Amino acid sequence: MKESEIFTWENLCSMRSGIETFNQQKYWECHEELEHIWLEERTNPCRYVYWAVIQVAATMVHFRDKKLIGCQGMLVKSKEKFQKCRDLHVVNTLVLEYLSWEKLEQMVMQLPDDAPIQEFAPLFDFRFHNYPFAKIPLESGSES
Prior knowledge:
The chain is 60% helix and 0% strand.
């Protein structure tokens, strides 16, 4: 695997704003924040980490709006992205430790594709508790 295909500290730093908005349950804003970096990384398999979080956030937008079909459809897409992360071997120590990946992935993968709306509530309450906010500047491109 090329160095550019390994999820790095820089990748993690670039997610700060998206993770903050996700943790504030501002799921649409999370989607928007992470979409920018996802688009920039078109050839990098690490983009599937961003994409998985984007699609979980989109799922939560539908949950908040009580749109079951939207929740279920985005859930299926989220599952595909989590699987793609595994298939492409982009899930490494950084992803596992700082993005609480195993917990998030388990929550997503265990939801049935036809889950009723109330079963999405625990996912709505998920937070990235291990993200190292204190170690990452507010703007990932700035020097501290």
